[in-house]
Structures are given as C-alpha cells and as structure tokens.
Design goal:
elongated, about 45% helix, about 300 residues, single chain, D-Maltodextrin-Binding Protein, domain 2, alpha/beta, 10 helices
C-alpha cells in the first residue's frame, strides 16, 4: 500500500487501485510511520507527497516487491509454468512495432502478463537504470557497463516530405540542400532528434526547426500538411508511404540503418518470463516487422 500511495500521490486513489478502503491505506501507512519513527508523507489536502524518509524507504520497498515477484516466478518455473509479469519499456517510435510483436508473443506464452510503458529515449533509459522496467526496446541504448543490448531488427530512419513538396521529385539531395527547409522534429531526449542533430552537424548545417513535438503522429500530420520536412523512423510511416501520403527524400546518407535493441541491466536477475520475451524479440522481431510492411502494401493496393 505504501508504494501504491507514493505512486498515486493520493491515499484515496491508491485505495481505489488496490481495491481496499482509504481507511485501510491510512491505517497501514500510520503503522509504518509509528514503526519507523518518521513521517513518510506530507498531507496536502487530498494529495500526499513523500518526505525525505518516505523517498528513501520507497527505493527499498520497490526492491522488496520486485524480489517477491522474482521469487514467485522462479517457483512457477520449477513447476514448469511460464508466467509472471514483465515490465517492458519502449521508446515512443517503437509503439508502431512492439504491440504487434507482443500480440504474437502472448499467443505462445499466454501466462506472461506485460506491463508496457512508452517514453522518449532518455525517459526509458532512466527508468531502466532505476529498475522500474526489466526490459526495454530502444534504437540507441545507453553506453554503460551495466547495460546489455541485443539487436533484433533493422531500424531505418528516413527524411520525409509531402508529395507536393518542392523537393519531392528531386533525383538526389544532400543534407546541405535541406538547410532552407523547416524541420518538424521530436523533443530533446528523443533518439530521432539526436539523429537529426548528428546529421546536420556532420554536414555543417544549422537546423531550421519549424516545430517541435513529442508525437510521431503530429510530425506525420504536419509533414502531410506541408509545414516542413522531418527525420523519422521508417517503421512509423509504413501505411502513409503505401498510400502515397508522404514521400521519402533521396538524401545522401539516408536511410540511416541502425538496429532495434532489446536492452536489460546486467545486474538485474532475469526471470523466465523476461528471458522468453527477450528471446522472442530476437528470434521473431524482424519477421513481424517485415510482415507489417507487407500488410500495409496489400491494404493500399486494395484501396
């Protein structure tokens, strides 16, 4: 209940999520405060905030809860049952592929429950470091000794424009040719934003940013509306390309071919459910992505 209250910042909300009464949450928190000798929360109307003591305790409470979950999964594995819960983090761009992979994974492993979290590259890297997620799907893993990153699929990034854009029919372009164009880009901390900045730096070009957003969908709509051009993952625009709603520009050095990685911390134990999901991504990730691309083409042809 303590962890639930800390995350919800409300005893009433924690009670609702845990299916108990608010009085039960308050009573247990009061017992913990009496035992520890510290106030764990500051009450601010209907909301609560952790004190310094509460913040310190929260770190260890999460470790204890994770250890109990890991022990349960280990015992289930001894009985030959693959189950448990995996908290999977994924960068925002991966939302176009990860649910499709997970849908097929759960056909093979129906006992494994997935808690899926999305965020930009920095948010997911931070969550992995804090132990809030067990596995992550990323395009550019953090380069630290505690991180193990396994590639599982090719991840191309392209530059797109509206079909009627003045450069849409150009046979060949360089990054320098794009210097006068307005760029629609992701926010700081995004892997796509970092890739765009690296390309401009290498070409000696100052990016002319026309709009910044945290949404790939907004980027696509802005490009289709003629607001500018964008660097974006090829995997986010499969249907739009097939339908002719956007075009990739033939820019020298693009597409940039990177990889999708499944990432974990070496210091965190791998439970059976974690291992099976990681292995499934490595064995089947590329095949699922290729199937999606083919589905988009077939859908466009039917239309």
């Amino acid at each position: 209940m303590f962890v639930g209250a800390a995350e919800a910042e409300s005893f009433a909300r924690a009670a609702e999520l845990l299916h108990v009464s608010p009085a039960a949450v308050s009573f247990q928190i009061k017992q913990m405060e009496d035992m520890s000798g510290f106030a764990l929360f500051e009450r601010m109307g209907k909301k609560v905030a952790l004190t310094d003591a509460g913040s310190s305790l929260l770190t260890y409470a999460r470790i204890v809860l994770q250890a109990l979950q890991d022990a349960d999964q280990s015992l289930m594995a001894l009985r030959g049952v693959v189950g448990g819960r995996v908290t999977l983090g994924a960068v925002s761009t991966a939302k176009y592929i990860v649910p499709h992979v997970l849908a097929r994974f759960q056909i093979e492993y129906p006992g494994v429950a997935i808690n899926l979290r999305f965020g930009n590259r920095q948010h997911i890297a931070d969550a992995l470091e804090r132990g809030e997620i067990e596995l992550a799907v990323m395009g550019q893993p953090a380069e630290t000794s505690d991180v193990s990153a396994t590639p599982f699929a090719v991840h191309p990034s392209v530059i797109i424009a509206a079909p009627k854009h003045r450069l849409a029919q150009a046979p060949k372009l360089t990054v320098a040719d794009l210097a006068a164009e307005r760029l629609i880009t992701r926010e700081d901390g995004s892997g796509t934003r970092l890739l765009m900045e690296q390309a401009c730096l290498a070409a000696g070009v100052t990016a002319r940013i026309g709009m910044t957003t945290d949404s790939n969908e907004t980027i696509k709509q802005a490009v289709m509306a003629g607001m500018g051009i964008a660097v974006i993952s090829r995997h986010t625009i499969g249907l739009e390309l097939a339908l002719g709603l956007v075009r990739t520009l033939p820019v020298e050095g693009f597409p940039v071919l990177r990889s999708w990685f499944v990432v974990r911390r070496r210091s965190m134990p791998m439970m059976p459910g974690h291992t099976h999901l990681q292995d499934y991504l490595v064995r089947n990730g590329q095949k699922v992505i290729d199937g999606l691309e083919a589905d988009y083409v077939r859908a466009a042809q039917r239309d």
